[in-house]
Amino acid sequence: MKFKIILSTFLKYGTLLTSLGFIFTVSLQIYARFFLTDVPPWTEEASRMLFIYAISFASGLAYRGNYFVYLEAFYVGFSQKMKKVVDLVSPLLSFLLFGITAWYAVSVFKMGFSESSPSLQIIMAVPFFSLLILSCTVSFYSLLSLLKKIKYWRS
Asked: pTM for the whole thing?
């Protein structure tokens, strides 16, 4: 239980900080285009990485809060039995998909240690780590959702 609270807090602050950083770097780039002679070359790459991290942190929270888009028009037309099946299969498939993604994200992360970004000159493992955050948090919250639905379905 405590792990869920710590993870949720980490994701919330990560989303907030990276979103603010993204806004700052984009604002700096806009300001530099209008008022300075040269635009700092690192702002585009930094804003791209901050945006990717903001999405990575927010995706687990979005899954937890059930904020992803789904096709309710089809769902409403299903029978009650079919709705139960869809409710059970959906988190299972999400768990499998993001679990497989997490598995391969580890090798992508390791591969990033041998590369560096063009303008920021940081190792690419730093931006590649965002894929691991996204896939692990979504698979974790989809597993919790699956277990909750199995418990509800049995009762």
From this structure: 0.89
